[in-house]
């Protein structure tokens, strides 16, 4: 098997699943209006933070009666805030089919030590049986499994008359997939995912039902300051209008606003979803005609359009021991990175050996198409070593 080295490279070789590629046309000069050196509690700082919240609501089409807050520590901080503040009032169903979902299970079972926790798991590439979820309990799940490339197909499996809260980690879904907020009580995400913002800041979106739980229930454990959303049994409303719990980077805020304004000019959520769908279609068309590769997701209806996970299915590779399969993929990734054709496309460390290509809205379809040429080339190079070991 011999394939010539491709004669072109992606214009933007960044395909990392987080932090993700900056938007097309991004430049540091776009952030010139950032109020650096000013307090985030000054009028200008609060105005920027409020603008970020308002644009988030507009682009994501969040209902008017849902609160949106900027919180510390990225999506992880937002999810932890929800788990520590809301759980314990009733039983909880924990859904896990990839490493981040597994992480939330660990927090609930080993850190919060909730006894009435039911764990519904599925292997990489699959979903748990959503029909078995008990919505008398609270339910914690990821909308899009960043490390498995598997997402829930929709929110039809969530009843409108549920008794428990639904807590959804949607960090690799927001701005690329449509969320049914009527079925979601807590939604979290981070700036550095689908819009390619800078790291360390998270967002939490609360339904009226979640706010009611916050103001009528006090967990049995002490809450760290950065998790507290209430004071004296009342919601700290300032969190949801730009008074952040701790000091945000105004440079990162400006970068997030820039991405939101780009999204608005592009056409909003419909345009963002369309771009991600177009990107993953390029990969799907390539996979359909390429015998050595397949999607990790078992079926198309649960396949992510952002963190797209691929596996090598060539018989000569699948016959190798798991460690050798992982080494084969790393060889492919290293070859492509050495040529500066693509960066950060190795699968997640806890996932099965494979590739992971970010296809969110800030990525261009043409760059995905060019990447597939490099994947074919790198596979041929690595396969030659397997066929003719030294």
Q: How many beta-strand elements?
A: 14
**CATH superfamily placement of the largest domain:** Type I PLP-dependent aspartate aminotransferase-like (Major domain)
CATH topology of the largest domain: the name is: Aspartate Aminotransferase, domain 2
Number of helices: 9
The parts where pLDDT drops under 50 for at least 5 residues are none
* Text of the CATH class of the largest domain: Alpha Beta
- Strand % is 5-15%
Mean pLDDT: 97
Structural class call reads: alpha/beta
What's the number of domains? Answer: 2
Q: In one word, what is the shape?
A: globular
CATH architectural group of the largest domain: 3-Layer(aba) Sandwich
Helix content estimate: 25-40%
SSE pattern, N- to C-terminal = HEHEHEEEEEEEHEEHHEEHHEH
The gyration radius over C-alpha positions equals 22 Å
Strand order of the biggest β-sheet: 1-9-8-7-4-2-3
């Amino acid at each position: 098997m011999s394939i010539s080295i491709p004669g072109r490279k992606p214009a933007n070789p960044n395909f990392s699943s987080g932090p993700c590629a900056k938007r097309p046309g991004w430049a540091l000069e776009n952030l010139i209006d950032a109020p650096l050196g000013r307090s985030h509690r000054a009028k200008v700082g609060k105005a920027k933070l409020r603008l970020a919240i308002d644009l988030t609501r507009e682009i994501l089409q969040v209902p008017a009666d849902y609160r949106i807050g900027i919180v510390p520590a990225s999506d992880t901080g937002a999810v932890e805030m929800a788990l520590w503040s809301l759980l314990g009032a009733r039983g909880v169903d924990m859904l896990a089919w990839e490493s981040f979902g597994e992480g939330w299970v660990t927090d609930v079972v080993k850190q919060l030590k909730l006894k009435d926790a039911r764990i519904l798991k599925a292997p990489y590439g699959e979903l748990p049986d959503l029909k078995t979820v008990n919505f008398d309990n609270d339910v914690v799940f990821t909308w899009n499994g960043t490390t498995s490339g598997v997402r829930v197909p929709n929110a039809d499996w969530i009843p409108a008359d549920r008794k428990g809260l639904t807590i959804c980690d949607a960090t690799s879904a927001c701005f690329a997939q449509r969320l049914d907020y009527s079925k979601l009580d807590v939604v979290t995400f981070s700036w550095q995912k689908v819009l390619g913002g800078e790291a360390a800041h998270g967002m939490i979106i609360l339904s009226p039902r979640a706010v009611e739980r916050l103001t009528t229930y006090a967990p049995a454990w002490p809450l760290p300051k950065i998790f507290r959303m209430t004071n004296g049994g009342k919601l700290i409303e300032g969190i949801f209008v730009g008074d952040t719990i701790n000091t945000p980077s105004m440079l990162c805020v400006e970068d997030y606003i820039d991405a939101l304004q780009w999204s608005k000019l592009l056409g909003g959520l419909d345009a963002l979803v369309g771009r991600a769908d177009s990107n993953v279609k390029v990969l799907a068309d390539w996979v359909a005609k390429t015998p050595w590769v397949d999607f990790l997701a078992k079926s198309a209806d649960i396949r992510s359009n952002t963190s797209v996970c691929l596996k090598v299915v060539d018989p000569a590779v699948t016959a190798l021991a798991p460690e050798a399969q992982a080494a084969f993929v790393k060889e492919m990734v290293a070859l492509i990175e050495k040529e500066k054709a693509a960066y950060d496309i190795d699968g997640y460390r806890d996932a099965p050996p494979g590739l992971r290509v970010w296809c969110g809205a800030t990525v261009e379809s043409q760059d995905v198409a060019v990447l597939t040429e490099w994947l074919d080339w790198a596979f041929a190079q690595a396969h030659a070593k397997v066929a003719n070991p030294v």
